[in-house]
């Protein structure tokens, strides 16, 4: 690989032919008419409950099913008339003060002029948008709590195991199939897939849980549940075909619950999510040939993971800290960075204007520098 070819490397996601879970029926318009209000809710992921030895899909489903809802997206067709555009799923995770809070996918409510929620008993209620985040594809709604009898608990997604049984609950193909449940396993704890906003801005990659539980259009926003009945992920997308057009089965993706908890708290508090950036263009070290690692990067053979700096934002955080093209970042605050997923995970634990320690290799020299996160990632 030449220096020129290395510079052309781009990360590509695993979701060629991704289908978002909202079952689109008609055209949509920009969401601008919905009143946005914020109210702080102290929600956190609980310690993952021990799964009883006699736990079954039925016991897990019964524990959470009443908290799973259908989310109906309406476009405006006249001054006072609306038409249903799409349907997805959601889960009620908190009942506090004068509202009950629902997490769903951003793409489920995108373009809505009005949002309704259909509860487990079939009753439909109006919903207010609290906040949305395109990068993680999450949104928070709130409804009147009067008819809410059950809320879901979040489990610790860092504790899930490959091969562990899970359920996906939602409304595949719409609310006529509400509360449908499918069973599968965790296929991978962390998978990096491409992420982009509705306007086409690419965010580089999202870290998701891979599962073979069936996820169909309309399941988006519904919970991925462990057999203790806790939410370990929010179902978001599925892989329907490979880059070559080959049909794919049993590859669904869910946003990890630990990430969900962090995002929903920020959305409820501020109505949006502001993220720091270090101001670099990058490729994963694993995408660089061994020969180029020696001739271009000139890093020690012992360095087997990390991200390669391909460019820096002029006067951005990384640039001011002295990082250069072909430096290889291997840790943030002492936490190992094997690739882009690790970099994002560690970086997004911080707020704008925090200072972090970045460990990197400049050729054969290992260095650690302090970087102040003054650059904001726009979404």
TrEMBL record:
Residues 267-339 form the PDZ domain. GO terms for biological process: proteolysis. PROSITE patterns: PDZ. Belongs to the peptidase S1C family. The keyword Flavoprotein does not apply. Its EC number is 3.4.21.-. It comes from the Bacteria. It holds the Pfam family Trypsin_2. The keyword Transmembrane helix applies. One of its GO terms (molecular function) is serine-type endopeptidase activity. This is Trypsin-like serine protease. The chain crosses the membrane at residues 6-27. The gene is htrA. Keywords: Hydrolase, Membrane, Protease, Serine protease, Transmembrane, Transmembrane helix. It is an enzyme of class 3 (hydrolase).
